Amino acid sequence: xxxxxxxxxxxxxxxxxxxxxxxxxxxxxxxxxxxxxxxxxxxxxxxxxxxxxxxxxxxxxxxxxxxxxxxxxxxxxxxxxxxxxxxxxxxxxxxxxxxxxxxxxxxxxxxxxxxxxxxxxxxxxxxxxxxxxxxxxxxxxxxxxxxxxxxxxxxxxxxxxxxxxxxxxxxxxxxxxxxxxxxxxxxxxxxxxxxxxxxxxxxxxxxxxxxxxxxxxxxxxxxxxxxxxxxxxxxxxxxxxxxxxxxxxxxxxxxxxxxxxxxxxxxxxxxxxxxxxxxxxxxxxxxxxxxxxxxxxxxxxxxxxxxxxxxxxxxxxxxxxxxxxxxxxxxxxxxxxxxxxxxxxxxxxxxxxxxxxxxxxxxxxxxxxxxxxxxxxxxxxxxxxxxxxxxxxxxxxxxxxxxxxxxxxxxxxxxxxxxxxxxxxxxxxxxxxxxxxxxxxxxxxxxxxxxxxxxxxxxxxxxxxxxxxxxxxxxxxxxxxxx
Length: 483
Description:
By secondary structure, this protein is mainly alpha-helical. Helices cover about 70% and strands about 0% of the residues. The protein has 17 helices and three strands. The protein has a three-stranded antiparallel sheet. Strand 2 (about 105) and strand 3 (about 110) form a beta hairpin.
């Protein structure tokens, strides 16, 4: 393959689409407008959420520390609120951000769900999607590439130019690769200005310790989208080369775009839900609650499980009543009950997440057939707006909740006498300095390695598409018709 011929053909595409077509300039301007609007609105949304979370996190902490002296178990039921920060790159790709919630109320003996998602507070119009930079670049720019590329070879076949190129000794691989790179340049004209603006946003924002991680992720996003556009460009040129007329080429490319962006994603989602049905929230909560009830009630001293536990403690310490134990027996019961309920909920939660993972795997494996799904999944993972980010927040919040409840139980065990008959007794009240000593909740973003490992299939999909298209161009285009 002659590089100079590829460059000439690539420049020809550039000149033909950009310089000779007024429509192209209008379309590029519209795309610029959409991308600028989506990036600015994404930054505003991120900034607003960041300020809101910081404000209410400070308020939650202040109220926690300023609680008066009281029984520690009352503080465990008073609870805490864990708030989730968006990852900085969410301004580029909203992903699941609008649907996964931002806050969890943490209390003893109970695991609550994440609340206050944007979807729950918005109208049904949100179901139609939000305009993010990623959505424009994943959906609309490939369609624009197909619009620019449908006639690149088919039109030359119709007007006889293709035959002249063949007579001059230009090969099919040179034609297809040259025109594909010319089309890729057109994609980069739209993509790069928006990408550079996003880079400036990251560089001049106050991201503290995550700036390096965000820049690395953003660099990988740039590579992934460039590869995606090369796939779309090669598909457009190949379909145009295989089609007898430009009209049939356009029809085929629109069909491919619809299959990639609408049909296959919907089919994968439906198939995943059909093969791995997930229980409703009511069914899930009932299953957890019924198992916890079977384990016993830590608030009921006559419960069989805890009665047996009491007997074993009395024998172990060689005493006749719980008042003679060297620690607060009620607190010990609360701690045991918290441990049992947490283990039960964690097991059910793990089973539920396995179902969701199986559903997601159907979508991920479909990405091997669909580069759109591959870039969509990979973009969300790198932008920190995927399902793994959500589950990471849930796990961190649950760990904090459990530690808080058990810390309050430990305080009761260590500092309160067994002679206490009510939590309102003066001897059952401890200093609020203990609340201040308990650390604040700090959400940690998912690791980059975890994000990449979760989307290995998407990465493999993009690489396979590039290799397969390149192999096809090199070995199977010689039989393409010139006229």
